[in-house]
Design a protein that fits this description.
It is a multi-pass membrane protein. The protein contains 17 helices and two strands. By secondary structure, the chain is mostly helical.
């Protein structure tokens, strides 16, 4: 079924439910604002691209999606692949890859591929998620500690770890204090006031301390300049057959990640609100959202599990909450863009370190290593290792192939009765 959820929920809305969705939308926007900026920076893109993605893709995912409460936007899962595409093909190459991924997802929605996404083995999903979390954490350690790496330092873990160690003399105590303060503030506010958008408060407070005390700490403004106060005009990237072929593997990975994460988020949301999402409508919406984000110069987007959970806890119950969230971010961008320049880079790095920790779901590590089949544990470890040390494309390809082969073997399918060829 491709009918967006908003079609069936809007006629049931009341002034009270709309107000509840508005409050939830404002709340989740306050969480999404610094996170979108941080994800864009970690991806190697300009910070405003994160806001553009949250606004454009967030609006389209809520307006067209198959979940009642899904919140869409840039997510940490894309950081690794986005960084790699930008490093190899430039930002224009990323825009084209995102556009291609959007088209692939639209076709997938029409072909009802949303039902097939559930066949991806869970150990593979857990393995590459933990691997991505480890790469994100490794990428943010220098900013969180004020360590200055030489220009052109590779992003590969095997080369980046020695580079960080060799640059340890540049360790900066004020930057470390700001990064640690942001981490402790986020954790404390989440535990004390779980429904309150403590994330932006923690990042805002430590950034204010940098400005008030005139600490020698890098800020968003000092590194990137002032953010724009409006959305860019739509623009098509350069499209040639050679570029389409070169970027196809990246586009497939972006489409795969967007599809998997959006459906995982929708399933989590279903359990929280006793709902029933429409997977093919969700895949279709992800496709349209990624096309829209690409045309506006944004990043790849998908359903964000943490922001979706924040939306539900804040009282959001219909797609209007996600639409309000996008409009609030747009309003902040237009009215308060100069204030974002004061955000401290170590604070944003601390925010992503917390995000990476939560992505890896440490509460499940023991279960991963002690329960289930040995083959599933080995599959998880293999996917995680390949993600960190090799390449996300290789990790997903090998993991999915082995996982499906193991699943087929467990069904005790009889071997084929081969007969000699008649030649």
């Amino acid at each position: 079924m491709l009918t967006p959820k908003i079609i069936t929920t809007l006629p049931q809305s009341t002034p009270k439910s709309v107000l509840a969705d508005l409050v939830a939308g404002v709340t989740v926007a306050m969480v999404a604002l610094p996170l979108s900026l941080a994800i864009a920076i970690a991806s190697g893109a300009a910070p405003e691209t994160g806001l553009v993605t949250a606004i454009v893709a967030g609006f389209l995912i809520s307006a067209l999606g198959g979940s009642r409460v899904q919140i869409g936007g840039p997510t940490g899962a894309f950081i690794v692949v986005v960084h790699g595409v930008i490093a190899t093909h430039g930002f224009d190459g990323l825009v084209l890859a995102t556009l291609m991924a959007g088209v692939i997802l639209v076709i997938g929605g029409l072909l009802k591929a949303g039902n097939l996404m559930r066949l991806v083995p869970e150990p593979v999903i857990n393995g590459f998620t933990i691997g991505i979390a480890a790469i994100i954490a490794l990428s943010q350690l220098p900013d969180a500690m004020g360590i200055t790496l030489p220009a052109g330092t590779p992003a590969d873990a095997l080369e980046r770890i020695p580079a960080i160690w060799e640059a340890r003399a540049s360790f900066d105590w004020p930057s470390f204090a700001i990064g640690l303060g942001a981490i402790l503030g986020i954790i404390a506010l989440r535990r004390l006031f779980p429904r309150f958008p403590g994330l932006i408060v923690a990042v805002g407070v430590v950034s204010a301390a940098v400005a008030i005390l005139s600490l020698p700490v890098d800020t968003l403004g000092s590194r990137f300049g002032m953010l724009p106060d409006r959305l860019p005009l739509p623009r098509l990237p350069e499209i040639t057959l050679a570029r389409l072929i070169d970027l196809l593997p990246s586009a497939l990975i972006i489409a795969f990640l967007a599809g998997i994460e959006s459906l995982l988020s929708a399933m989590v949301a279903d359990r929280m609100v006793a709902g029933n999402h429409r997977p093919n409508a969700e895949i279709m919406a992800q496709g349209v959202a990624n096309v829209g984000s690409a045309l506006m110069g944004g990043l790849p987007a998908t359903g964000a599990i943490a922001r979706t959970a924040t939306n539900v806890r804040a009282g959001g119950r219909t797609p209007l909450a996600g639409i309000f969230h996008a409009l609030v971010i747009l309003a902040v961008m237009m009215l308060a863009a100069p204030l974002a320049g004061y955000l401290a880079m170590p604070a944003l790095a601390g925010l992503l370190l917390v995000t990476a920790w939560n992505m890896s779901e440490p509460q499940h590590w023991r279960g991963y290593l002690t329960t289930g089949r040995v083959s599933d544990r080995l599959l998880l470890l293999l996917t995680m290792t390949l993600t960190v040390l090799a390449d996300l494309t290789v990790a997903i390809g090998v993991g999915v192939a082995l996982g499906l082969a193991l699943r087929l073997a467990r069904r005790d399918v009889p071997p084929a009765d081969w007969t000699p060829p008649d030649r």
